[in-house]
Sequence to fold (279 residues):
Amino acid sequence: MNKGYGNIRDEKICNENIRGGHGGKAEKGSRLRYAAGSINPSVKAFTVLSVVLLLAFQYNTCLNLFVLAACLLGLIFFSKAHMSSIVRIMIPAAAASAGMFFMGLYFLKGGSVMQEMGAQEGAAISYAVQTAAVKNLGGALALSSRILAYAGLGSFFVLSTDPEEFVSSLIHQCRLPAKFGYGILAALHLVPGMQREYDNIRLAFRVRGVKIRKISGGVIFAMLVNCIRWSDNVAMAMESRGFSDGRGRTYHEVPRVKIRDILFFALCAGSVAFAIFNV
Fold:
């Protein structure tokens, strides 16, 4: 549904611009606007994992902030992600980063601020606290900024990747068995239905005059029973349509690894590796 709506919206934008005499520029701008979503999902996932592993073995605050800024700019200018979605992800990440910063400032490098305070007396306590905090400041900034960089990488992948395209890429590029791939897709499509079913069951209880809390065990049990029924129906539908995992399967769309995907991986992983080992 999201993919179809996005295509229809893009087509409308292009048609309106063509009527205004700017068809070529509009088409080029539309492709550039959604460039992040056109990268092969498997290559994008491998790129994100590679950058995560590279950042895990360094304490470079500037590099972490650079990765965060690159991910946010990529989402804002080269994807169809909404700003509200980015903010919803980054607020908890910022809270976790702040907690890591104060923990690193308080306890790092084999000692803590309280240990430094215990070794001093009187007016020297404030100086001991300042000395310990300055000694731990660099490590605390590196740890907290790394969390933000990880959050930026995760949000870049999640908000710029279509789940169906990702599963399709896993099937074709990563040789994931089709039965597991379609099982993942079925689970993804089941999640919104679970929320609707939960609301409908709560409404049914209220109509009968049964007082229930916002989170009720009885409502959850009834929802799970209906979910099991849905899963059985999906399984029977796949069997009745001759679904199999054999080599003779055909696919409507087959994702390919293109030159731009390889360049994307080389640019991202290569630039981070260069910054770690040469700066």
User: Anything to note?
Assistant: Residues 124-159 form the longest helix (36 residues). Residues 1-23, 121-125 have pLDDT under 50 and may be disordered.
